[in-house]
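Backbone geometry tokens:
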Amino acid sequence: MLDMGAESLPDPSCSSQMQLHLSLQGAVPHNGVIHIRTAVPNPTEVRVEALIYGYVRDDLADGHSEELEDAMTSLAREEGLCFAATFHESTSGDGTAFAELTQELKRADAHHVVVPSLDHLAGQTIPRDILLAKLAQEAAAQVWTIDS
């Protein structure tokens, strides 16, 4: 039996239009594809792309947030990931959006973040390394950049 609860994703470009929470009995995952064994000769195939979230510091975006988000979405698509949302840190830079991003990664069991550059995490190496370590430790997140 396949039990699916679903919640809509914001990005219509994802081949998977829903984040699926699967309770599988008789399903065998193989290479990111779930084949469901049924009495029907043609098994149903469900593809679920991993989620990736964007993070942008508005003070560094210099009015180009839309272009940066387009570039992050393109990178996600090229890497076979589903771009879910962008968290914008306000110009006051109090860290609220970063904390919300970390919470969302844990809630969604997502492990990918994309930033325009590592400067969007922090301009100096030590604070940047602390934030990268926080993402890795709390959400097992890999950070991607569009400027590399």
